[in-house]
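#struct-help
A.M.: can someone run this one for me? Single chain, 403 residues.
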Amino acid sequence: MSNRTSRRTFLGVASAAAAAGSCSRPERLAQSQKAAANRLALEEFQPKSMLVVPEHPVKRARFPVIDVHTHISSIFRSRRSAPPIDRETALKQLDEIAKWTKEINLVRIINVTGGWGDDLKRNVNDLQERYNGHFVTCTTPAWDRIREQNYPKWQADELANSRKSGAVGLKILKTLGLYLRENGREGPLVKIDDPRFDPMWEQAGALKMPVFIHVADPDAFFTPTDRFNERWEELGNHPDWSFYGKDFPPKPELLAARNRIVARHPKTQFIGLHVANHPENLDEVSAWLKQYPNLHCEIGARLGEIGRQPRRAHKFFEQFQDRIMFGTDGTPNGKEVPQQDLVPAMYQAYFRFLETLDEYFDYAPSATPPQGRWRIYGIGLPDSILKKVYHNNAARLLGWKTV
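D.P.: on it. Structure tokens below:
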């Protein structure tokens, strides 16, 4: 069977098989042929819900919002899927983004991938200074220098330089743990809790720069891409997102290494991105938040996960209302993170989840849900918690004025 055929699921075959038991052989053959002719590819299956329930779309957030997790600076970078964009065109796009984000009450946006050195300075100039703090940016480590003998001290010093340049935090991509190797493309993967990074973690704490850390992906990305995988369709579209097999560490190992860093550096504040990278198990995330007072989390790109467990999610938000922040993992035009287009509809899905008790609505503004074929339910947070999640938890951690 070809890969193309094996990646398709067809509908209607089961009903034909059930009826075949009472038919003669020629009749069963005819029914089988008819069923085959009526096969429907899964990607063409777009059912419309017949459920009639109250709907309360939220166009503007009830309180001012800080999005702690975006990739705005990607608008300046050339992409493999699009021609390079010149600076003036990028700035025009940013002008438009700045306008509509203010209209929906998004008052501050953190660009987490601001780079380091000259790249960081350009991002600070084009984002923070040009837009008077509406956009702010984080720095990222210089992974290509880790093999240098003086790297630990150099990276800690560079973090201080980044702070002086205007960076508000340190972003750790899943490069660490899943891609970064000792000898370029060869050699073993570098461990997340490698002691070479200890001076950097300590420096972040001393500089009061939160660490926005992403160390793993959804559970389904670490299991076989087979008929039991609930993200089979997503992984079929993006096979390179799978971390199953080869020499990739199991997901629990990655998370345990992250937690050892958090424990080893209690004066440094860590923000576990994507609900601390384990929204599938809020009990486990809750245990971490109880154990590590310097660990926080945000909800970027995991609305589909927390939104399908509304009762457990509401309890989670209630219990850790001072430690959860609003984030989206949004990217202009959705080129870098295809499932999270930086558009008003994407934000409004988050607002609806947090502010209403609506049932069974789409978690992403697209024809085919990007993560799985399910819908979500609102958790209707009270204003006292909503204000913290939307704004004050992030503001407090970053030293900004609360509302």
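A.M.: thanks! The chain has two domains: 3-44, 65-398.
D.P.: also worth noting: DSSP finds 16 helices and ten strands in the chain.
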